[in-house]
Design brief:
414 residues, alpha+beta, five-stranded antiparallel sheet, 12 helices, rod-shaped
Amino acid sequence: MKHVPFFRWVVAVGLVLIGCSIAVYMAAPGSPELKQVDLAVLQEKSDGTCTVQWTDPYGSGRHEERYLCDADRPQSFKSPDYQPGTTIGWDVGWVVAEGADKGELYSLEQDGSGDRWSAASDALVAAGMLLATVGVIGGNIRSLSRLSGVSPGLVRRAERLRKVAARVAEDHARAVETVREAWAPLHEGLVHAELARTPVAKLRGAGIALLWAKDLERNGIRSVQDVLDAGAWGVAEASGVGRRTAERVWTAAGRKADHVDAGTTVRLDADPPDARTAVLLNALRVLVEAGPAARSAAEESRRLAGRLGECLAEAAPAAGWRRMLDAGRAERRAVPAAVTRLRLLLDEAERQGVAGRFAQASVDLLRGTDGDPMGLSARVDFESRPAEYHRLLSELVRPALARRAARPADGDRP
């Protein structure tokens, strides 16, 4: 869930208010055109309230009116200092120089319309500045709080270790697969040869009549392998039996093939070894020389890579400030715990020296055999410890044999 940009909205509202303040200021009514006149102050109070006379410069005569004088003007302009022995003082005023009020006395202090517009503009700009300031400061504080969990260095170290661990697991899996790929054609060849040597008459134990077996032999289907190659339709055509009987024969051949497949063992002691046996010996030698340490490192690396991958997925926002800012609230909440787990995993790995073991395991598993295509050095090594080679081969091919044994039941055979 993405965070709500609250402080961005606060800044936006503040900018809108500042814009409104400018608009109010621009829309305020302007002061009329004025002309300065001399005022004779007839009476004056301490607060500046006074009665004045002036001569209209536009010819309408002399006027008298209440006015708000400047109470802070020099004392010499006030009565009786201005004209001793009288109550007359002096001040400066303004009359309207245009429009219907031309010649009328104009008081800046008494005309409050402009002040109201100005006050409104000032209030708007003050509120806008306040909101904008709060939004900017609050947004920065929120950003800093989100960035508090950023640990790019730690994330990079964890990612490097995860890649090293994953590489070891891949190297070991590749070495194991190389052995199985080299073993498969040898094993299949031995099974095929055994089935080809097994006469079709051996299927009588599965309920196949002797007469049917002789009919098959007369029509070129002499071995169990021939039955498998011909299929149910081929058996029916060769023996003249019905479809159901032909399927029984073919099913019996399949059961025999499964039995032979499970009981056939590839031997490595052929002398001299053929090309396919040499390939298998070379593949086995890599794992034999790597030893149990490589297998243990591979198992440990798979576990560690998995744990690091899970923690890195949760700690992904900690990889940089931009990713942290873009992360949702739930993602940011998960970061501190994930970073803590990563730090513990890295500390434990450093104490145990797993990086060094992984590197050594990769070197051992990547030792090539391209310089010995005939497998001579592998043959020499095999003769020095044959039991270890056979034991390792048995361990590696056992899953493949188990998968073969789990093939569909007889009735489900294609």
